[in-house]
Amino acid sequence: MPLPSPAPLTGNRFATVTKTDHGAPIFIAATLGLVFSFLVLFVRITVIKWHRWGLDDLVLVCAKTIGLGQWICIFISYHNGLGKAISIVDPGDLPHMAKAFFASRILLVIALCLAKCSLLLSIRTIFTVDLKKQWLTSNITIAIVCAWGAASALAISVNCSPNYVVSGPQNVQCPNHISRLRAIFILEALLESTIVVLPVIFLIGSNMAWSRKLLVAVIFSLRLPTVAFIIVYLVTSTRFISNDSTGVGIADTAVWQQVLLGYSLMSVTIPMLKQFVTDFTTGGMGFSKTPTDTHNGSSQNTKPQSSTAVELSVFSKKSSATVPLPSRATEPAKLLRRSRSASHVSEDVAPDFSSVVSHSSRQRMIQ
């Protein structure tokens, strides 16, 4: 039995989709991406990392600011007819619509670049404490991402006219338009995949439990949907250009552009979830690959402890001392001098030092 035909539209509606107007999905996608992206940033700054901000947070704020510029360009372009058939748009609005959308693509790749840099800075902070190879690898990856961002911003704009949205991609100047887009976003997909794999590589050979390693892999794999969104955005963009479409045909590209940017900016915060960072990090924000350094705490407030030494606390009627006792036998005189320099020890502890060893009149505690 065939389904009944939909009822005719009545009254005022927020937005409608018709054969000549596909602008509503663009507006909704841009609004949701803007709102949720800044909500996540607010939670990150005020809850997750309150008073523990770092360079990664600063770079992420810059990425959100550039992203805000992209959303503003989309709203301007939408106001001037983005997603509508050229025949129903005021001819005076067409140049403004085309230029705003063209600018949004440039801001898109810059914001994506900064989002990657922010995540890489977080990875460098978490995984590379006192590990030079991992530190160097992170820095090299950051440099590659920055180079990709600068080259992409130029490749997507140099010698290209913004009027392809209005006049059709084949009727304006933009040499090798599809090849440029493929080079930009295929490289981006590879960079995103590298960022996901990087923490797993850093954990190889560490003494962390396999369950914890699996948790790290799962947390950072939540970045993988970005790769899927990149592929979909690239497919819709190349399809729009190949079909020589105008007006309505760009709606899918604009929608997936908002999805890609919004998720990319929001997913940067996922590895910084407070419980995950608290459970995983050691030594401030990192992990130790040495068997003897398995304690948790801040690297700024803890000093390396030797695995061959214990602390000896000596209590007497008049004084107490904490004495570092090496694993090998140490002469009483040397041990006494060390105890005097480390704590308050009275003069009359020296004659009775032998009684400490013999457990006669002193109590000792090995901490």
From TrEMBL:
<dbReference type="InterPro" id="IPR049326">
    <property type="entry name" value="Rhodopsin_dom_fungi"/>
</dbReference>
<feature type="transmembrane region" description="Helical">
    <location>
        <begin position="178"/>
        <end position="202"/>
    </location>
</feature>
<feature type="region of interest" description="Disordered">
    <location>
        <begin position="288"/>
        <end position="308"/>
    </location>
</feature>
<feature type="transmembrane region" description="Helical">
    <location>
        <begin position="135"/>
        <end position="158"/>
    </location>
</feature>
<feature type="transmembrane region" description="Helical">
    <location>
        <begin position="100"/>
        <end position="123"/>
    </location>
</feature>
<feature type="region of interest" description="Disordered">
    <location>
        <begin position="323"/>
        <end position="367"/>
    </location>
</feature>
<dbReference type="Pfam" id="PF20684">
    <property type="entry name" value="Fung_rhodopsin"/>
</dbReference>
<feature type="transmembrane region" description="Helical">
    <location>
        <begin position="26"/>
        <end position="46"/>
    </location>
</feature>
<feature type="transmembrane region" description="Helical">
    <location>
        <begin position="214"/>
        <end position="235"/>
    </location>
</feature>
<feature type="compositionally biased region" description="Polar residues">
    <location>
        <begin position="355"/>
        <end position="367"/>
    </location>
</feature>
<feature type="domain" description="Rhodopsin">
    <location>
        <begin position="48"/>
        <end position="277"/>
    </location>
</feature>
<feature type="transmembrane region" description="Helical">
    <location>
        <begin position="58"/>
        <end position="80"/>
    </location>
</feature>
<keyword id="KW-1133">Transmembrane helix</keyword>
<protein>
    <recommendedName>
        <fullName>Rhodopsin domain-containing protein</fullName>
    </recommendedName>
</protein>
<keyword id="KW-0812">Transmembrane</keyword>
<keyword id="KW-0472">Membrane</keyword>
<feature type="compositionally biased region" description="Polar residues">
    <location>
        <begin position="289"/>
        <end position="308"/>
    </location>
</feature>
